[in-house]
Amino acid sequence: MPDSLLPRRGFSGATIVLGVTGGIAAYKAADLTSKLVQAGADVHVVMTDAATRFVQPLTFEALTHQPVFTDVFAGWSDGGRGHVSLAATADLLLIAPATADIIARLAAGFVDDMLTAVALATSAPIAIAPAMEHHMWHHPATQANLATLRARGVIVIEPERGYLASGASGDGRLAATDRVLAQARAVLGAGGPLAGRRIVITAGGTREALDPVRYLGNGSTGTMGLALVDAAIDCGAQVTLIAGPTVGAIASAAEVIRIESAQEMADAVWRETTSADVLIMAAAVADFRPKVQSEQKIKKQPGQDDLTLDLVRNPDIIAETQVPGLLKVGFAAETEHLEQYARAKLDAKGLAMIVANDAARTIGSADSEATLIFAERPARSLPSMAKGELAGVILDEIVALLRTEVAS
């Protein structure tokens, strides 16, 4: 696939102008800045005068290795054109925290400092992460200003409920850094090669209950599924993630549906794929479940040396998902005859592509060595790579498959 058609991978190579305004949450912007830089972004910080009263510009200069802009007249030297240059080079203007004051000034179109000048001059997308006292957040003026900004296309990363600087608890707490990063990543991915497409992705293992405290399960962590979600969002797709109980905390712009059992996952997949373009079944779904789930904890009896369980077949989710036009991608984690068994699954389940890998070396691991097997072209063997990198390769192939499908 030509490089021009490939999506950006996360924040790598992105130019982010980070606006920091004068609220107590300004100190959290340092952590946000650090994580953006670590993710490969080129970060330029613009601080309001009030923000410098909470955090020194030197903090951000040390983190970004870039000068911090605090004055609208700064940057007009050495070929730079101040706010004009910042506005022109930005891939995203992210304001975090965004106070009630900056929200009001942006809504009114004021240009009275460096940050508002950049905001009016840039054609890049703008995302804001509000942070303020509970009553300020709910005030009609603030909500009206937010409505104005949303109508102009500004992305609002909603604040959270929790402990506030005032000592009270309520709405207005700055969204957690991982949430801000996830939403910013989605903004950067918008307009990618899968814009307008809807993808359903499953991740993690399922649990099949034996009794109220025990279950049959597996060691899948959902790492591959989560990496696929990020890669799909980087491509501009609207993503629904159906996650099993083995998947930990999820910070993503995807819609997340939590399930426990294979049957619950099947029901969710069949419901969500009725309006989807692609299904990626990365979950490690139990093939069998107990025929009977005990209502009480199963107790071992005196002298009992063994326990016999009767198991029944779970639905073959991807095979039984029959939606016209749906492109289906599966995974085959095998312990022997890898390509042979994977090819048989691809044919039997009506898949466009299957990702085959060694179960013992993949489940629970940060890396994966995979072979991509296709319905209509030769297999592609890949070297061992991080699951995030593999997810990018898989999504590139999905983009190509969808283009082929449209062309035909």
Explain what this protein looks like in three dimensions.
- The chain is α/β, with parallel strands linked by helices.
- The chain has two domains: 3-188, Rossmann fold (3-Layer(aba) Sandwich), CATH 3.40.50.1950; 194-292 and 308-407, Rossmann fold.
- 34% of the residues lie in helices and 22% in strands.
- It contains 14 helices and 21 strands.
- The protein has helices at 28-38, 57-64, 83-89, 100-108, 114-121, 134-138, 140-151, 177-189, 223-234, 262-272, 317-320, 338-349, 359-362, 387-407; strands at residues 15-20, 42-47, 92-98, 126-130, 155-156, 160-163, 169-173, 198-203, 208-209, 215-216, 238-243, 255-258, 278-281, 288-290, 311-313, 327-334, 353-358, 367-368, 370-374, 380-381, 385-386.
- The strands form six sheets. Strands 12-11-8-13-16-17-19-20 form an eight-stranded mixed sheet, with helices on both faces. Strands 2-1-3-4-5 form a five-stranded parallel sheet, with helices on both faces.
Describe the SSE topology.
Blueprint: E1 15-20, H1 28-38, E2 42-47, H2 57-64, H3 83-89, E3 92-98, H4 100-108, H5 114-121, E4 126-130, H6 134-138, H7 140-151, E5 155-156, E6 160-163, E7 169-173, H8 177-189, E8 198-203, E9 208-209, E10 215-216, H9 223-234, E11 238-243, E12 255-258, H10 262-272, E13 278-281, E14 288-290, E15 311-313, H11 317-320, E16 327-334, H12 338-349, E17 353-358, H13 359-362, E18 367-368, E19 370-374, E20 380-381, E21 385-386, H14 387-407
Parallel strand pairs: 1-2, 1-3, 3-4, 4-5, 8-11, 8-13, 11-12, 13-16, 16-17
Antiparallel strand pairs: 6-7, 9-10, 14-15, 17-19, 18-21, 19-20
Helix pairs in contact: 1-2, 1-8, 3-5, 4-7, 9-14
